[in-house]
Design goal:
The chain is 48% helix and 16% strand. With 141 residues, it is of the alpha/beta class. It has a 5-stranded parallel sheet with strand order 2-1-3-5-4, sandwiched between helices. α2 runs parallel beside α3 (68-74). The protein is globular, with a radius of gyration of 14 Å. The structure holds D-ribose.
Length: 141
């Protein structure tokens, strides 16, 4: 189960991402926001982070205008490793090396086609499990 969260700056792209996940048959829980009305991105970062902390969802996708505010917020939560990705290379490496559990993107930065590829790469790439990467992840907390 993938937890989704966005603010008004990420709302449009999130609707596209949801349609893409539907097409792939990937289950998600949408924690909002549910319109383009102006909202505070930390609210949605916290909802997605909590769903992962509680084990309700394994991975999350967060989108705000730049992806920055929402990822900074998520990264302040214990056990959350949010990676702001604007390309597939980083999406792949952050799963392999950082075991990132949240993908953050900027709805005003990446277009839908690139976002779909970033999402697919993130969701389809497993953590390498290598000792040196796990050691470094353990050092984060
Ligand atoms: C909202 O205007 C914007 O500040 C927000 O979506 C995000 O880009 C913050 O980092």
């Amino acid at each position: 189960m993938v937890a989704l969260g966005c603010d008004h700056g990420g709302y449009a792209l999130m609707q596209e991402v949801k349609a893409h996940l539907d097409q792939r048959g990937i289950e998600y829980k949408d924690f909002g926001t549910y319109s383009t009305d102006s909202v505070d991105y930390p609210v949605y970062a916290h909802k997605v982070g909590k769903a992962i902390q509680d084990g309700e969802c394994e991975l999350g996708i967060l989108i705000c205008g730049t992806g920055i505010g929402i990822s900074i917020t998520a990264n302040k939560m214990k056990g959350i490793r949010a990676a702001l990705c604007e390309n597939c290379f980083c999406a792949e490496k952050t799963r392999e090396h950082n075991n990132a559990n949240v993908l953050a993107m900027g709805g005003r930065v990446v277009g839908p086609e690139l976002a779909f590829k970033i999402v697919d790469t993130f969701l389809d790439t497993p953590f390498s499990g290598e000792e040196r990467h796990q050691r470094r992840i353990d050092m984060m907390e």
